């Protein structure tokens, strides 16, 4: 999507999911059963739900994974229907997914991965030196060891280091919408605070960035302070509300909310 196209659609919602149904590829089991969710520019939305509710499936479908087939509904970015776009085209347009389990890529350093990704996202062929200066600044803000820039992507990284590296990618690639798939998974409280602070640092630089944070727990939301909280159960959003909804989940559990 070009900058001119985005500008022409500036009045449309940043990211809009309407009546989304999806199943596993090749006629498998339906997992998403009619998702409606709109994230406006600069908003932080949280999606919570028990295990098996479809949270990570939704994240993967939004990225355009061929593992799932959309059988109904639409996904729109600034009003543009991207439902049938492949993952690489969505990434270039500004859809970013921070994975729950970031993959290791042997033989590809962090800085070279970033250079290739940024070139694909923006068509900017930065030199390694130019990119290194930007990465070093963000690594300092994310409390990352600068030597990690030259290490193979996620190879030998701890869980917290992998998640911080995902936020580093988000900072450098400057997406329009960032989907954080259980970024808090496997993190201790100190690492969680560093990652959440990193997300807020990126938002301070790019206040129009939209965030959809998918999580089991309230502790991430305490740091991110979402505008809206949505509860996903059995492939459907059963209740939406303000941050107080996450407090109810913490005290009452999912079985007593929206059911």
Walk me through what this model shows.
By secondary structure, the protein is an alpha/beta fold. It has one domain: Rossmann fold (3-Layer(aba) Sandwich), CATH 3.40.50. It contains nine helices and twelve strands. The strands form three sheets. The chain has a six-stranded mixed beta sheet with strand order 6-9-10-3-11-12, sandwiched between helices. The protein has a four-stranded antiparallel beta sheet with strand order 2-1-4-5. α6 packs parallel to α7 (189-205) and α7 packs parallel to α8 (218-224). The protein is globular and about 50 Å long. The termini are far apart. Mean pLDDT is 87; it is low at 1-5.
How many strand elements? 12
**Spans of at least 5 consecutive residues with low confidence:** 1-5
Count of alpha and pi helical runs: 9
What is the end-to-end distance?
A: 40 Å
CATH superfamily: P-loop containing nucleotide triphosphate hydrolases
CATH topology, what is it called?
Answer: Rossmann fold
What's the average pLDDT?
A: 87
Query: What spatial form do the alpha-carbon principal axes imply?
Result: globular
Spell the H/E element sequence. Answer: HEEEHEEHEEHHEHEHEHEEH
Sheet with most strands: strand arrangement: 6-9-10-3-11-12
Secondary structural class? alpha/beta
